[in-house]
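User: For a benchmark we're assembling, each entry needs the component sequences followed by a predicted structure for the full assembly. Here are entry 17's components. Please fill in the structure.
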Amino acid sequence: MTYSTAQPPSLSDRLTEAILGIIRDQDLGPGDAIPSARELAKRFELTTPTIREALRKLEATGAVEFRHGSGTYVGPTINNVVLANPHRPPITKQSVLQLIGARLVIEPAVARESALSRGEQNLERLEAAVTNALVPPGGPAFALNFHVELAAASGNPLLEEVLASLLKVRLREQQQIRQLYDNRERDHEEHRAILDAVRAQDAEEAERLTREHLDNIRAAVDAADFPELS
Amino acid sequence: MTYSTAQPPSLSDRLTEAILGIIRDQDLGPGDAIPSARELAKRFELTTPTIREALRKLEATGAVEFRHGSGTYVGPTINNVVLANPHRPPITKQSVLQLIGARLVIEPAVARESALSRGEQNLERLEAAVTNALVPPGGPAFALNFHVELAAASGNPLLEEVLASLLKVRLREQQQIRQLYDNRERDHEEHRAILDAVRAQDAEEAERLTREHLDNIRAAVDAADFPELS
DNA sequence: AAAGGCTAAGTGATTTAGTCACTTTGTGAC
DNA sequence: GTCACAAAGTGACTAAATCACTTAGCCTTT
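Assistant: Structure for entry 17:
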C-alpha cells in the first residue's frame, strides 16, 4: 500500500507559491492590492482561468481577497500559521461539548501565562472586551472577544491564533452557547473577575477562575436541550 | 470606516457549499470519489472552469484531492475544524521560538489531561511513537508523532487537531529542531519518561516532565546558531 | 464652492468550445 | 494466464469573448 499519495506539485501549486513570492518580495501587507488576474496572466504566460484557480486556493486560506470590480487584495490571515477551516462540518451537541472540552484544557494554562506576561495595552483591550460584551444588542461579530484577547495578552501570537481559530470555526456554536448560558450577566461578571486576576498578575487565580468559568459554561450546555442541527 | 468587508456569498462560495452538501448527503468519506468536473458542470448548469475554481478552494483546505487522469476524491482533512495553513510564511528563529513558546503553554496541560483519560489503545500508539522515533534514518513523515499521539490520548479530537496543526505547519522548523536538539537519544529518553507517567496516570508528573522536555528543547534552539532562512 | 449624477476605464465573474495529458479498464493476442 | 494495447473517462489548460461591478474623474446643477 502506497501510503503517501505525494503527487508532483501541480502548476496551480507552483503558481500560488509564485504569487505569494510576489507578495513577499514587494512586502505587501493585508489590504494591499495585488496585480490583476489579467496582469498576472500576462506575466506568467498563462490564461486567466488558470490564474483564478490559484487565486481561489489562496482565497480559501484567507491569503487573498477578491473585491468584485475593484481588484484582488492581500487578505487578513496571510501570516497566520493555523487556520479555522472555512468548510466546517455541521454542528452537533457533541461537537459543542468537544469544543468546550478543548478550551478547558488550553485556556486555563493560557490565562496563567497571560497573567504573568500581560502589558498595559493588553489590559486596555481586555477592559474593552469586557465592557463591550454588554453593548451590542444584536451586535456584529467584530467586537473584541474576551477569550481571544486573553490569549493575545500572553504575548505569543500563535496562542492568539489557536484560540481565535477554535472560536471562529465554532462561531455558530458560540452564539448558541451565549444564548444558553444565562443572560450574559454572569458571563460578564466572570470575565471581569478573570481580568482582575490578570491585572493583579495572580496567575494561580486567573487559571482557577478561567477553569471555573468554562466549567460553568459546559454545565449550562450539557443541561440544555439542544436545538436541531441545520 | 466600514470595518466588516462582508461581501455577499459569491457563486464560488455557494458552489463549495453545494459540493460539500453532496459529499455529506451521500455520506462520502476520505478517499471516496466525487463526481467529475464535467458531471458537476452539467448538474449545476455551469462550466468547468467555474467548477474547478470551487474545487480548488476545497483542495486548499484538504477537503478534496485531485488525481490527474483519475478523478477528484474526498480529502483527509474534510472533518477537521482547525487547519495548518498550507501557504505558510517563511521560517525565522523567532518563529521557531514562538512555536515552542506556544507548545510550552498548551502541551503540559494536554499531558495532564491525557494522563487521566488515556485508554489502552492510546498507550499502544504512544509506545509505537516512542519506539519508531529511533527507527527511520531519513524516514518519511508518516511516522507517528509522539506529541500528537499524546494529545490524541486525551480523547478529544480537537486537541489532537490543534497539536497536529501546530506541528505540521512548522514541520520544517521541527526538522531543524530535531537536528539541533542533541542526537535524539535524549529526546527518546524524555518521551519515554512522559509515557511512563501517562501510563501510571500520574497527571502531575506528566505535566512536569512535558514542561521540562519543552524547556530543554527551547534552550537548545535558543543557544544554537540558526541556519539561514530559505 | 459644494453636491450630485454621468461616463469611461479597469477589474472580477463567467461562458463557450476546444486540445492535451494522464489513468484506468477491458479486450484480444500470445 | 499474462502482457500489450486501444479506448474511454478524467483532470489540466488554452483561447477569446461577454457581462457585472467598482472607482475615479468630469461635468452639471445647486
